[in-house]
Amino acid sequence: MKIETFFDPRTFTLTHVVFDPDTRDALVIDPVLDYDPVGSVVSTDSVDRVTELLRHEALTLRAILETHAHADHLSGSQVLRARFPGAFIAIGERIREVQGVFKGVFDLGDEFTPDGHQFDRLLADHEAFAAGSLTVHVIATPGHTPACVSYHIGDAVFTGDALFMPDYGTGRCDFPRGSAAALHRSVTTRLYSLPDPTRVFVGHDYMPGGRALAFESTIGAERQHNIQLPADRSEAEFVAFRVARDAKLDPPKLLYPSLQVNIRAGHLPEPAHAGAPAHLKIPFRLKQPSEGGSCPDPAIHSSNVNS
Question: What is the pTM of this model?
Answer without folding.
Answer: 0.92
